[in-house]
Structure prediction request, 346 residues.
Amino acid sequence: MDEARITPVILCGGSGTRLWPRSRADNPKPFQTLVGEATLFEEALSRCVDATRFGPPVIVTGAAHQPLVEAQCGHADASIIVEPCARNTAAAIALAALCVPGDALLLVCPSDQHIADTAAFDAAISRAAGLAQEGWLVTFGIEPTRAETGFGYIARGESLGDGAYRVAQFTEKPDAARAAEFLAGGRHDWNGGIFMFRADRFLQELAANRADIADLAKVAMESATRDGRIIRPDDDSFTRIEGTSIDYAVMERTDRAAVVPVNMGWSDIGNWQALHDARPHDASGNSVSGSAQLADCRNVAIDSDGPRVSAIGLENIIIVVNGGEVLVTTMDGAQAVGKLDGANGK
Prediction:
């Protein structure tokens, strides 16, 4: 197999409202330095720079984030598809699949995730690539570390060899009892939204299961305008697409879905607790970004863009100071940050 034909597809959408006030619509979390010295978007690109395995990336984004993508891309040969509007992942991936040769392998990655163990990720890519060449649509299953109710789950079916399995079932965000059952059972993985398949196989499955999306995406790309590396799909055709995810449109409907489980230090950095978990901690489990002093605190996260934050005797608390806004929440309340007026631009 010629792994140089793997095309990274980086999806840049969403505003990361649960990381407000740090993440905002005009500067969302993929383009910020949250873990380490690179932004999450730059991390996503850096995982796919080995020219012996990967071809030029295809980046799918919206007009609002195009300047941020261009500023941080660093790949002169990248293709940047600018969607006229957001229509979720099925349509975004269809656009990318339509601008590469049909036999190209696509590695689809969100732009806002952190992967600590890149060697494990590379090994999973190699396993997935073999299956994708055989016509499977592969999803990367994230080894669960807790009974998480905020993620979807993938049940492993029969073995396909080399640490891969046929997908038995997808389950969307279970309740606490079912999540605990999945964790204890040992045959479920988190659905991390990372995929690999041939471009033509994805388009075939999309046409078979959601012909409306496939047809409109094709027309949108046939009538696209191009200016250097910037590709703009036709507005009229694309805006008529009904937005839905790749999971609903394809992965839950195909009989050729496979899962490659991988333990790679993955985090979706989906809220402040997830970011706290991904950052370095002191002996009491506290994480600090910016200026802070803590006394007798345990499992406290501090993130400040300027003012020094002082905390005494706190436990399981998050304090964020950014752009004139202050957020204080418990760790358990981190999931609800996106519901605040400020997080939604109100």
User: Anything to note?
Assistant: The radius of gyration is 20 Å. The mean pLDDT is 94. Residues 57 and 248 are 25 Å apart (CA to CA).
